Amino acid sequence: MDRLVNGRIAAVIDIGSSYVGMRISQIRGKDIVDLERLSRPVTVGHEVFSEGKLSFETIREISSILDSFITLMNEYKVSHYKVIATTALREAQNHEFVLDQLKIQNGVSVEILEDSHEKSLIYSECIERLKLDKASEGSDTIIAYIGTGTIGMALYRNGGIAFSYNLPIGYVKLYDMFSNIIEETNDINIVLEEYLNEIMGDLKYLVNKAVIDTVVITGNGVDMISELSGLRCSDGLYSVDPDKIYQLYSTVNRMTIEKLETKFDLSSENSRLIYSAVAIYSSILKIVKSKNIVSPKVQLWDSLIRQIFFPRYKTSYENHIRKNAVSCSIALAKYYKSDIKHCEFLKKCAVLIFDKLKKFHGLGPRKRLLLEVACFMHECGYSVNSRNPLTNVFDVVRNVNIYGLSEEDGEIAARIVKFDEDHAPSVDEDIKVRMSNRNRLVISKLTAIMRIADSLDKSHMQKLKDIKIRLFKNEVIISARSDKNVLLEKWAFDGCSDFFTDVFGLRIRLIIRPDKMSI
Amino acid sequence: MGEKNSENKKGEMPFNNREFSWMDFNLRVLEEAMDKSNPIIERIKFLSITASNLDEFFMVRVAEAMERKDSKPNNKDSSGLKPKQLLSLLSERVHKFSDQQYSCFYKSILPTLSKSNIKFIKWNDLDERQLEYTENYFEKIIFPVLTPLAVDVGRPFPLLANRSINIAVELEKDGESNFGVVQVPSILPRYLEIPSQNDKIYILLEDIITGELSRLFELHSIKSSCTFRITRDSDLEIDEDAENLLTEIQKSIKKRKRGDLVRLEISNKSSKKIKKFLLDMLDVEKKEVYELNGPIDLTFLSKFANEDWDSKLKFGPLNPVNPPMDFVGYEDMFKAIREKDRMVYHPFESFDCVINFVRQAAEDKDVLAIKQTLYRVSGNSPIIAALIKAAENGKQVTVLVELKARFDEENNIEWAKKLEKAGCHVIYGLAGLKTHCKVILVVRREEGCIKRYIHMGTGNYNDTTAKFYTDIGLFTCREKFGMDVSSLFNSLTGYSRPPEYQKIVVAPTDMREFFEHMIKNEINNAEAGLISGMIIKVNSLVDYNIIKLLYKASQAGVPVKLIVRGMCCLIPGVKGWSQNITVRSIVGRLLEHSRIFYFESGGNPRIYMGSADLMQRNFDRRVEVIFPIEDEDLKSRSIEVLDIILKDGANARVQASDTSYSRVSRRGKKVIDSQADLFNLFKVPDENKLDKPDIDTFRPLESNEI
Lengths: 519, 706
What we know:
The complex is a heterodimer. Chain A is an alpha/beta fold. Chain A has helices spanning 2-7, 44-51, 56-75, 87-91, 95-106, 115-130, 171-182, 188-199, 201-209, 222-229, 242-254, 257-264, 268-288, 300-309, 311-335, 340-356, 358-361, 365-377, 389-399, 407-416, 429-434, 437-455, 487-504, and strands at 9-15, 19-28, 31-41, 80-85, 110-112, 140-146, 151-157, 160-167, 212-219, 232-234, 237-239, 293-296, 465-471, 475-482, 507-514. The longest helix of chain B is centred in the N-terminal third of the chain and has 33 residues, at 83-115.
């Protein structure tokens, strides 16, 4: 990584829904200075959102663009770069073939960013740029990201993300979805408004539950919409006047695509998309009803390029993810009426064991985070109904948006919470079929740890104190003190220890001493 | 000045016809040929320039009007003329102009030459010894390359090359008359120096061939003969979507030789029979026929003027300052540019600094890439050589060679191939647009960081024309310029769509809007009682909308000083329209070519320079770059330059409201020759630092630049 910094020039290529872009930057002191900013329009989004996959011609076009970008990178002797792709390529049915073709033809490995990763990069930039972590306690901020293929929403509260969710619809996708009726009706605005109103239920919930101080709207269309609305931009930040957006929306609705092209000097592509983009902006503004709305010029590669240049930033970003994934899990746990004290206790015990057993499990911080998330989320199934709580919790964890977690992360976390002392993942058919060998092991290890930790507070009364983990050659001893009746905990522990031993090849014992003896 | 179409109907915007305005410009050049205060050889060059200018005028402008006459006969141009009316009026003007050209040649040039013992003589004037010499030359040199062609029922009229000189011959055999055509070979010199004791005597090639016609048609008797020349439509029709633009242009150049005929020049001594024969064979209308009183095609005078003549017959040499004042004391150009922006004004300051900039970049181990646009380059361009060297040294070299640069297409194809062979990344320009901007970008790694050095100019990267075209170049390494120019190249290479430029103004992206905005700004300032004004120095002012805005500016009280060398469709001094506008044109020994735009901007003047004229083609069909001069010293210098140019009394003509041009009144004033004074402005005090004079500057203006 040090070599990267010494190299001082890096590039990020972004294969987006409507463009392929590249940024070549150099580091000067503490600043990152852009040397090149390139963008070439492509129709990736339209093809994927309407046909489901990318055509041969478009793959060739992307390859040709990459070829020219690589030529330019060579001019600057760029040796460190990242090629990423977002929604459109992610949703293309043939994305694996596309990536393979680009690898063969251009020699580049394209990383498809998961939706959650994409959003967390953007949100972290917004939080950093707007210093939201310094905002006063009790004031909530809604961060909305309007992309070409997705819309992301997050509630930022007391220094952490409390809720985060993504809608699989963006302005390109929305346009493509209704393109067949746009030409046939003069009331397309009504169709779009009703549809958007219907899918934005979660945003309405957030607004009702929060005391919103600030709304942050960002996304690819920010510049275009802000400029067309005549919004003021100062230091890379637009102050959004909702009336101006509504006015633009009203203007756009009265005009044909051809007239929009002329009036706003837009490309025909942008003049088509402006309909759906302004409709989304307008719908969000109507729901949030805030006066303090800002729109920072934040782009995905701001974060990515910084990660390439500053290894510390990557750590800081990971910390951001950890902190906010946990805060998001806690908020969800509360929403599902979990026993937060128990969850906190469980998490404390679980990470204690995880950290102590590091050389036995070989898992990194990301898996530790999944363990923490699982600890907070493991009871979410009970509030759905108490008949099949494990199945319920599995469904909940698998389907809610937990900030910063990928789909794979969600799958792992969901499977960790699926088991208690009576059930073990080793015999689970679903895991055998759907998860890779590597992830099966991860699930088993984390489940083994979580079940032991959970057994230590089976009664939800936090009876054990001074919990310590000691590691011997073939044995793990958990010692604790308690002056309470701990038979339930011992019973639960015994039920879980065999599975633990099977997974780690270590015996595990629980020694509980009376509280008074240790005094 | 002949008929003017400035007298528009009441209330209509005054708009001078661009073709008439161009003819007026050529007349100003002819005035220089007639001006006895100019040395005789220089006058010959000016006369030659008028001829080559006129050739191109026919090949492009007249051809275009003729095409419009067929395709859109009822469409009026901005001056209100239909194509047929325009062609008719043009024909009258060109006939009159040709008379003036030949009057100048016979009544002024030849007698003056004769005083210096330089003479052109006819076949019949040769003495015995000269005749023997000429016949021998014909026998050995001319005869082997001649192909006399008889024209009759079985042998059709030959396809004649554009601008080739031919001799039509009326023949008779066995009482039957027919015709023959002999092409005067273009591979041979147009004139031959023949021995003489005291004088320098010359005879024209076509006169020798005419004198020896009987040897070419031995079986016929020669009844009469005359020289003639045809001019063809030479605008290329290029399919820009073709797979290989280079091959497509090569094909089009071949087609150019067979373009539609737009002019027939014929000796006024031709017989009626020959004239009728040619008109029938070539299918031309009488208005397209120009009967000339002298040698057809006076462009040969350019080569003649470049013979080794006594220096007394020519302008004295010009001494470009080398190194230019901004680079005095700097071995390392990059260092000089790092310290501040640098500006150079050619040919008052040597063009070598631009060549050295590319050479230094080619040799510099820290330079990663060089990118450059090339529109017209010289025959043996040191810039091309430096680019090739750079590629050989492992630099990434990207060159945009504009293959569509009119009449330089073949030359540019050659360069493009050479550059490609050397490993440069060569781009042939953009479909539908000519890349006319003059930009060099050097990407250099310095202390781990990337620094971009830029040169932007008003003139071509052509070391030959840079010796007699006035052009300005700016060197800078400021970040925003670097970003802009990088983005421009990314756009030209097709790597990226055009971005929002921060400093430079680019056509066709937003240059029109920029000028409109700047003019409107002056109007607003004038209306608000703030200081306002514009000084615009360009080669042509033709764009209708810009002219309309300039009239509005005048009406709002904005003083507008226009320095337009060539075509100017704006008419100054028209009551209610343009009383606050002055138009002057400078035609002198140097070709005024720099484009400078000065806006008063409420007391905080803004100055821009660049490659664009104020023409629709520059805004809409070309890639042009205008750049701001922001350094205060350079701004002051630019203002000083404009001030000197505006004071010119030697070469400047002022346009009146009837569109006629007249010399600036010199009464009681010290006559300022701005071109001479600018040499003094750029002189570096320490004479030892100057190079010795290296050029004998004046060369013919290339008509294709006008």
